[in-house]
Amino acid sequence: MAEAGIEDPVVFEEEPGTSSRLHPLQRPKFGELLTYARPGDTVHISEMFRLVRGNQHILDVLDVLHRDRLALRIHDGAFSAMDLTARHPRTGELLSTVKFMVQTLAAAGELQRDLQRELTYDGLRAAEAKGSKGGRRPAVAAAQTADVRTAYLEGRSIAALARDHGVSRGAIRTAVADLLPEHTAGDPGVPAPELPVVLDMPGKVADYLRTTELEPAERAALDQGVTVRRGQGYTLRVGAVPAVHRGLLARCQPLDGVQGAPAVPAQRKARREYENRVSALIPTGP
């Protein structure tokens, strides 16, 4: 809002997890927005498909905004360059050129989502064929946590504990995370291990990485991530040591574009968002 030069905005934002399959006019916060707004106000949307899913949704929203005499500004995406409020001066209907562009861009957006979904499923099937099991890996059971911590302090290695309890090494590290610095501080020759850091990874980055060859620790971090719905998309809340975050960031470098395969703007933007989070929260060394 600040970057767009909007002073004192009134924000209406859906809670995480709100179903994006609802018609926009049935979404609670958008209903509150329409009730609050007065003629002459401007509705700002970051990107059109954060609110709508298809052509008819867009036309319905435009009709309601026109009825309530509200202006519309879209800040990103293909619709940001269009004046979607342009109507015939006599009939009051959307200009035919505007309606045509809305229908064309909505169809293109739906095609892009379908292609992304198909590529994700293809990647998951390829991973399964190589023996990789999807889903979240089990955590250390609450009843076993005390035993794991005791065994770790007695000198049992993380790898051995993971084998004993049938979980990943990351699960063991999570169970003993607060013990790691103290356990190694007595030996000045052993550097203190990195502690896990939780970062939000944009969904487009996560979708790409799921179809990419990863190291076991990177794959484990991705599989254990928690999905948080964000309008039409989602973010993956990933907890991992800094080295793993840096490795995942390096793996998605092709999203910036490679020779013969130009970058998709939305994917490039998502990668840079993740890069900013990694760079801001994790020191890369002296």
UniProtKB/TrEMBL annotation:
Residues 1-131 form the Resolvase/invertase-type recombinase catalytic domain. InterPro entries: Resolv_N (IPR006119), Resolvase-like_N_sf (IPR036162). It holds the Pfam family Resolvase. It comes from the Bacteria. Coiled coil: none annotated. PROSITE patterns: RECOMBINASES_3. This is Recombinase family protein. Residues 1-21 are annotated as: Disordered. It comes from Actinomadura violacea.
